[in-house]
Fold:
Amino acid sequence: MTVGDVLVLERAHEADDAAFQAIFSEFQDRIYNCVYRLMGNAEDANDLTQETFLRAYSALPKIQGELKVGPWLYRIATNLCMDQLRRRKLIRWEPWDLFTSIFHPRQVARDNPEHDAVLSESRAQVQVVLEKLSPKYRMCLVLREYDGLSCQEIADIMGTTRSAVKSLLFRAREEFRQVYQKMEPAPAV
Structure:
């Protein structure tokens, strides 16, 4: 944690709106992106990001001692996502067109508009695979691969150990690979 984080946090404890605005400005995009990847749509991401910061603002006066602001906000956000996913337990059916592609990504040149279309389709396909994973695996992968957090930071967010996170990441990557392989259409002969 940087000295700036401690000072901002101390000012935020005193209900300094400018200090909380600094925290919000620094973390809003990162929290939104994490929530978006966990939930799969912008509307949920907006709602849960807003709820994350509302809960953080309400909780700041009650916090004693040092606090790592980033992991704390991620923990609030991921807990909100997990609660929401537990409440839903709905299967989202995606159109089959999302899974099919005329070109394989390796067949398209980098400066080609078709490449952009395939890349966009691949991102959508990755999001579909993420939605099929268990919430715990999804959270681990998103925090590590998209947000670039260390295993220790993920452990702090998830309330577990670093070695447990490593194990979860291994199993999550394996499940991701299996789900992705099942979705890939068989090559034309």
Remarks:
- The domain at 3-88 is CATH 1.10.1740.10 (Rna Polymerase Sigma Factor; Chain: A).
- The mean pLDDT is 77.
- Residues 141 and 148 are 10 Å apart (CA to CA).
